[in-house]
Design goal:
The complex is a heterodimer of chains A (66) and B (395). Chain A is mainly α. Chain A is built from two helices and no strands. Chain B contains 15 helices and four strands. In chain B, helix 5 runs antiparallel to helix 8. The longest helix of chain B has 28 residues. A two-stranded antiparallel sheet of chain B has the order 1-4. Classes of the chains: A mainly alpha (66), B mainly alpha (395).
């Protein structure tokens, strides 16, 4: 399962990189809605990376909830 | 201890069914998310998150918005089309408003179904009803500010509702319009009704948290990222748009529906304005009364007796503050100790716990929190509990 999560994190990181590149493209070409949507997509991708890191046990839970 | 003599009512059984569904939903979510990431544990925090997004994006929009009949529509178009990322921020504001209402409703239903609105929790429930009411008003006035055809017809319908109120209706309508008809002062008033209640929400939140010791005011980071990302994604993919600009001669008869803010106006298809106002008032008053009329079982039915307000045993209190931190009802305060305690552990104390009797709900949490036997429920002593346990074991 750990390997599955690890692969997921690598794939999501690649996706996040693509979204970040898209934001730059959107900014360079003044396509603000495109860039703004990709900001959202990037944040959503980050949230799933954090979820997988948590499931792997790399981060959390918070002290009060251990 | 009294025994259970009456069966729960049909309402009680129905609410128990809803409680089971709520708990099953938790179990399902825990298969996907760790328990500390369960969004249903943070529905209040999610509402706060959306409110924070609304305030930030609202401040941005406020800098560009012009509150006049001639310029409002054009200023919104300028924000959407010409201000860099202005259309995105407008969309974020619009979708965060929907998210705010959804999060509030989730919060309301979860606390209702899990009985977290009863007894001493009536204060958060009632303040929450006001938060919902104001949230709806703010969302509705937000649609008016665009001043397109939908805003125009909404304003006409709202005025019809105001005028249907006996005695005060015409006066309220006049105050709302800033004169005998919709004029230059109207949008300034609508902007006022949009921003001031939004600011008031934070005062109401203070009221909401007044009796809660450890409110979860913010969701976990994973949900902050997901939801902020979602509103940005929606704002980019399905941009917030305006209809045709409002005109004095325009008489639009239909408009795009928003299920979160326009249900009262949708009801006008079948009901008179006065009936919609009466229905709204009944719903609100009924909502306020829920904590007092929705108890599933009485205390005797639950086999609970009156335990008496908790009392501090002065000689044993060490001033450690554990009870103070554990009490969910803010019913314990720590005061400077007037002298040393009697026990060895309490000899060097500097603080002493004091119970605020009006806030104590006799739950016994402080008894469990205290390692020094410095608290007791006077009508429910430890020896009573031991006797009951012994009797139960023998039976």
């Amino acid at each position: 399962m750990q390997a599955f999560y690890g692969v997921g994190i690598v794939l999501l990181s690649g996706l996040a990189l693509a979204f970040a590149a898209g934001i730059i493209v959107g900014e360079a070409t003044d396509r603000w809605f495109f860039g703004g949507a990709l900001v959202g997509a990037l944040l959503i991708t980050y949230s799933f990376i954090i979820l997988l890191l948590r499931k792997m046990g790399v981060i959390g839970p918070r002290k009060a909830e251990r | 201890m009294s025994t259970v003599t009456a069966h729960p009512s049909r309402y009680g059984r129905f609410m128990t069914g809803l409680l089971r569904i709520t708990l099953r939903l938790d179990t399902f979510i825990h298969k996907l998310y760790p328990t500390d990431f369960n969004p249903l544990y943070y529905t209040g925090g999610l509402s706060n998150l959306f409110l924070f997004i609304l305030v930030l994006s609202g401040i941005f929009l406020f800098f560009y918005y012009e509150a006049s009949l001639a310029a409002a529509f054009e200023s919104v178009r300028y924000i959407s089309d010409e201000v860099p990322y202005g259309g995105i921020i407008r969309g974020v504001h619009r979708y965060a408003a929907d998210g705010f209402i959804v999060a509030i409703l989730l919060h309301l239903f979860r606390n209702w179904f899990t009985d977290r609105h009863l007894f001493s929790r009536d204060n958060p429930w009632i303040s929450g009803m006001f938060l919902l009411l104001f949230g709806g008003l703010i969302g509705f006035t937000g649609y008016q500010l665009v001043w397109d055809e939908r805003a125009q017809v909404l304003t006409t319908m709202f005025l019809a509702m105001l005028r249907s109120i006996p005695l005060a209706g015409d006066g309220l309508a006049k105050i709302f319009m800033g004169g005998v008809g919709i004029g230059e002062g109207t949008l300034v008033r609508i902007l006022f009704l949009h921003i001031v209640p939004a600011s008031t929400l934070y005062v109401m939140l203070w009221w909401h948290y007044l009796r809660l010791r450890h409110p979860k005011v913010w969701p976990p980071g994973v949900w902050v990222l997901l939801l902020v990302g979602l509103v940005f994604l929606l704002a980019g993919v399905i941009p917030a748009t305006s209809g045709q600009p409002a005109t004095p001669a325009g008489r639009p008869t239909s408009f795009p529906m928003d299920v979160f803010f326009m249900v009262p106006f949708w009801l006008l298809n079948w009901l008179s304005p006065g009936a919609v106002v009466v229905l709204g008032v009944l719903l609100f008053v009924g909502g306020l009364a829920v904590p007092y009329f929705s108890r599933r079982e009485t205390a005797p039915q639950m086999g609970v007796r009156h335990a008496g307000v908790a009392q501090v045993i002065d000689g044993n209190c060490t001033g450690c503050e554990l009870c103070y931190f554990d009490c969910p009802y803010n019913a314990i305060v720590m005061v400077p100790s007037p002298g040393p305690g009697l026990s060895k552990a309490a000899a060097n104390r500097t603080l002493l716990a004091v119970i605020l009797e009006s806030r104590c709900v006799e739950c016994g949490i402080c008894i469990g929190a205290c390692p020094f036997e410095a608290l007791e429920l006077p009508k429910f002593m430890e020896r009573d509990v031991r006797i009951e346990i012994a009797q139960a074991v023998q039976a």
